[in-house]
Amino acid sequence: MASNTIESEAMKPARFDYVAPTTLDAAIKALVAANGEGKVMAGGQSLMPLLNLRLSRPALVVDLMKVPGLSFIEDRGKTIAIGALTRHVELEQSELLARKLPVMSAAMRYVAHLAIRNRGTIGGSISHADPAAELPMLAVFHGATIRARGPNGARAIPAEEFFVAALTTCLEAEEIVYEVEFPVLHSVGWGFEEVSRRFGDFALACIALSIECREGVIGAARVGAMGIDDTPRRLRDAEAALVNTRREAAASARFAEAVRNSVSPPSDLHGSSEYRRSLIGALAQRALATAWARTVGEAT
């Protein structure tokens, strides 16, 4: 497979070779030939800034955009499968996701800006593994299965095992994400809250919540958070704090405290650790109030 060398004195990136294969197998072979020095581009909204700043200097960029069959949203009954090249805007506008994965549907409007959502892909975002990005957190929140293929075949990776550290996944250098499968949650109430310095910026703190209720009592809960650690997280202690509770102020306060006690966010130029802990607790109470409202039809 022929490649083009991208090189110019006026270019921001360092020199690299470029290929745009037309099959997934050809893309994997190109990565193998690159001997660990290849990078996959699946939209380029995260990779191109890294190249331009020379924070990433791959010998080869493998562009997936000519590989057919990787852009889809498919209802499989108990799960929704999404192809790796499905763009953010397609997730945002999907009526199927609005019905079956409403937390994802709501979260997509917070992803960067429209120009980014028109080009960025779910596979690119998941593989980039930014700890303050919505789609990695949604994968962990839903308990998604991330499917990747490499020279040794395909494997299915639970989302909580996929994200290892900030900008780091368990993918091998020659593996490519081709699909993400999200279980459909049978919740009656849900909430999603995010705060950033400016709309479209990465989150300072974010929480996703779903609850299952019977006769006004929470029987099961699911809580995901981001912007508070090197990877997105399920907050299981906070989930346990919601079980067997009713819609009352004391229960909401206990839940917020459980969320705060579950996280130890780092301090940075955007805010201190204590500020982020306080923020995620406030967002938890807001998300719970919205989730309760949805259980009785008070919110849409």
User: How many β strands by DSSP?
Assistant: 15
Write down the Rg.
Answer: 20 Å
Run of helices and strands? EEHEHEEEHHHHHHEEHEEEEEEEHHH
**Overall body shape:** globular
Strand content: 25-35%
Helical coverage, percent range: 25-40%
The biggest beta sheet is recorded as: 5 strands, antiparallel
Tell me the span between the first and last alpha carbons.
Answer: 51 Å
Low-pLDDT runs of 5+ residues are none
| Structural class estimated from helices and strands | alpha+beta
Mean pLDDT over all positions: 94
- Please state how the strands of the largest beta sheet are arranged side by side: 5-6-11-7-8
Number of helical segments? 12
Describe this structure in words.
- 34% of the residues lie in helices and 26% in strands.
- A hairpin with a 2-residue loop joins strand 13 (205-214) and strand 14 (217-226).
- The protein has 300 residues and is an alpha+beta fold.
- Helix 10 (236-242) packs antiparallel against helix 11 and helix 11 (249-261) runs antiparallel to helix 12.
- The protein has helices at residues 24-33, 47-52, 88-93, 95-100, 102-107, 114-119, 122-128, 134-142, 159-162, 236-242, 249-261, 273-295, and strands spanning 4-6, 16-19, 38-41, 60-63, 73-75, 79-83, 145-150, 153-158, 163-165, 168-169, 176-183, 189-195, 205-214, 217-226, 233-234.
- The strands form four sheets. The protein has a five-stranded antiparallel β-sheet with strand order 5-6-11-7-8. Strands 1-2-4-3 form a four-stranded mixed β-sheet, with helices on one face. Strands 12-13-14-15 form a four-stranded antiparallel β-sheet, with helices on both faces.
